[in-house]
Amino acid sequence: MTTLDIEFVRSQFPAFAEPSLKGQAFFENAGGSYTCKPVLDRLMRFYTQRKVQPYAPYEASTLGGAEMDEARARLAAMMGVETDELSFGPSTTQNTYVLAQAFRQFLSPGDAIIVTNQDHEANTGPWRRLADAGIEVREWQLDPQTGHLDPGDLEKLLDDKVRLVCFPHCSNVVGEINPVAEVSAMAHAIGAFVCVDGVSYAPHGLPNVAELGPDIYLFSSYKTYGPHQGVMVIRRSLGDLLPNQAHFFNADTLYKRFTPAGPDHAQVAASAGMADYVDILCDHHGGPTQGAAERAAFVHDLMRAHEVKLLQPLLDMLKARNDVRLLGPDEAENRAPTVAVHLNRPAEPVAAQLAEYGIMAGGGDFYAVRALQAQGIDPEDGVLRLSFTHYTSEQEMAQLMDALEKVL
């Protein structure tokens, strides 16, 4: 089966059977997705059967610790990295902040880093603060008309002073999928490390980090059908170099080095349900029977094909209007289904109007203040953001477009 079975997909999400949500179409997935049943099942089991300190020599504790280990092992395998290269933290924002503190100790005055103005603030603000320690901060700027990040512009910023390049896999308001493999290769060629914010990409299919090549890859499990955690891949070649940020006795354990606080046992364990869900989709659609990365890639492609099919009519509708501005590409192939629209008026009241038609969407700056300002948009007005993922149906897209016609 090469076409996503949308009814089967939706059966894996209890929200679609929830009476209080009946008739409402969810289009604020970029802020947080619905949670799949395997995650909820594991979370309930942990809280009812295994809510004890893990890794002790009694059954409930041993089983709880095993589930936490399972989550790291299976998600890491699906992303093409080693188990101890993947760790969990309370959020991607917090994980990024901790990494920035590690780099603050690792870098020397006169070293340079590169950030973008296309990012969510979580992957740009902490890095920019390194300027306080004498680190030169260079900005890879987006095109003010298209929102595009041109690798040619990055090349002009690269030299032997640059130690780190930080950019998003895709922006949470522009939506364009950036060429991670190409940029990683460019940075590595001059000896720099690469940090990629994958928060807006991972919900549309887990990436193979080994193939893409960054040294750090960050995303949020609560936007990827899971519990409220930040997932962080740090490749060993970098992780062993950076100063330990955790308790001194955890310094020799890679997946603990950059998580100063203790893990949320239940939520880490429940994250294995994200891997369960990928496997369930793979098996239902007749995907590969072996190879975690191969199975995840199959599901990734199923999700993306469905999203692209649903996204293009919405883009066509918006670009045909002369009273709104669509941010980012108007072709679905190279963008995530996160669609920001500048309305030339405050966006939040329009989101409230859409709610009257059963559309759950948002208006505002979405912590992408720099990206909006760089494109000439007043953050006070913000943008209307319409974001969906693979569990969205054609009927919901029709409901959205009908509501937009009435409201706009």
UniProtKB/TrEMBL annotation:
Keywords carried by this UniProt record: Aminotransferase, Pyridoxal phosphate, Transferase
Domain Aminotransferase class V span(s) in chain numbering: 26-239, 302-400
Signal sequence coordinates: none
One Pfam short name: Aminotran_5
SUPFAM superfamilies per the UniProt record, alphabetical: PLP-dependent transferases (SSF53383)
Top-level taxonomic group: Bacteria
Example of a GO MF term: transaminase activity
PANTHER family, per database record: CYSTEINE DESULFURASE (PTHR43586), PYRIDOXAL PHOSPHATE (PLP)-DEPENDENT ASPARTATE AMINOTRANSFERASE SUPERFAMILY (PTHR43586:SF21)
Protein name (record): Aminotransferase class V-fold PLP-dependent enzyme
Species name: Aliisedimentitalea scapharcae
